[in-house]
Design brief:
Elements (H helix, E strand, L loop, with lengths): L13 H13 L2 E6 L2 H4 L13 H4 L2 H4 L2 H6 L1 H17 L4 H12 L2 E6 L5 H4 L6 E2 L2 E8 L11 E2 L17 E5 L8 H12 L3 E5 L11 H7 L3 E5 L12 E3 L3 H10 L3
Parallel strand pairs: 1-2, 1-7, 2-3, 7-8, 8-9
Antiparallel strand pairs: 4-5, 4-6
Helix pairs in contact: 7-11, 9-10
Bound molecules: 2'-O-acetyl adenosine-5-diphosphoribose.
2'-O-acetyl adenosine-5-diphosphoribose (OAD) binds next to helix 2 and helix 11.
Length: 260
């Protein structure tokens, strides 16, 4: 039986909103790091939540590794095809839309996501840095994780087996698998943004997977004011300046409204 989150008052304390407003208005550069939690309210399962999380029911090494794909390409292909159909069937939620609205109010806002679902882009966010790639793109198995430009779209319908490129190479989802390197340009851009951030928001991430989990700490070391938005305690909670304990879809619209 999964324990519901302790009852959280959805309204943020006025003092937190005042601090947020002051810090945001003084910031030249805002950086946001999101994780699976921001898509939870769209109905997309996170990875590590007990019972409902993807990795609570499957062994990641059986599905999200190059070895798994070599061992059983059809299984891995169909698992990602199913996950992709799921994300295409849901809508961005108020949290995604709030971040797109926030970008309109900041001199500069850099959105870095660990998510591969493309929901930030569908909510209108632009230039999203996809640290862990995208479930909507494919590339030849065996080649390095591509940055956006050299990848292939999924066939429609996806079929039961991996499709092949013109030279006959098996295609695989352009999602970073365990043990794989992150897309180089995306990681470099995310690190550079974190180093120059005045305000850094970590939203919906358990902060367990490197190097993404280090970005908020890097920003803080360089003087950024850091915020966590998460209904649960995480590895980050004790290291940020402000913890907003609650759901992204309830908290982020309040952060935007506080700026009006
Ligand atoms: P996790 O599943 O590890 O963590 C999800 C976080 O979201 C948890 O801390 C939850 O408490 C929080 N959460 C749940 N509902 C929320 C809500 N409504 N609003 C805000 N937060 C909420 O997912 P990630 O931290 O994203 O890597 O996992 C990081 C990486 O591990 C993923 O990108 C994936 C996985 O292996 C790759 O695919 C390479």
């Amino acid at each position: 039986m999964s324990h519901p989150h302790p009852s959280i008052d959805p309204l943020l304390p006025a003092t937190d909103l005042a601090t947020w407003r002051e810090r945001f208005r003084a910031a030249r550069r805002v950086v946001v790091l999101t994780g699976a939690g921001i898509s939870a309210e769209s109905g997309v399962p996170t990875f590590r939540q007990a019972q409902t999380g993807l990795w609570a029911r499957y062994r990641a090494e059986d599905l999200a590794t190059p070895e798994a794909f070599e061992r059983d390409p059809d299984l891995v292909w169909s698992w990602y095809a199913g996950r992709r159909e799921k994300v295409l069937s849901v809508q961005p939620n108020a949290g995604h839309h709030a971040l797109a609205a926030l970008a309109e109010r900041a001199p500069e806002l850099v959105l870095v996501t660990q998510n591969v679902d493309g929901l930030h882009q569908r909510a209108g966010s632009r230039d999203v840095i996809e640290l862990h790639g995208s479930i909507h793109r494919l590339h030849p198995f065996g080649l390095a994780q591509p940055d956006v430009d050299d990848s292939v779209d999924w066939p429609q319908p996806p079929g039961e087996q991996p499709s092949r490129d013109a030279s006959g190479r098996l295609l695989r989802p352009s999602v970073v698998w365990f043990g794989e390197a992150l897309p180089e340009r995306a990681l470099a851009a995310a690190i550079e943004a974190a180093e120059r951030a005045d305000v850094f928001l970590a939203i919906g991430t358990s902060a367990l997977v490197q190097p993404a989990a280090s970005l908020p700490l890097l920003a803080r070391e360089r003087g950024a004011w850091t915020v966590e938005v998460n209904p649960q305690e995480t590895a980050l909670s004790g290291q940020v300046d402000l913890v907003l304990r609650g759901a992204a879809g309830q908290i982020l619209p309040q952060l935007v409204a506080a700026l009006d």
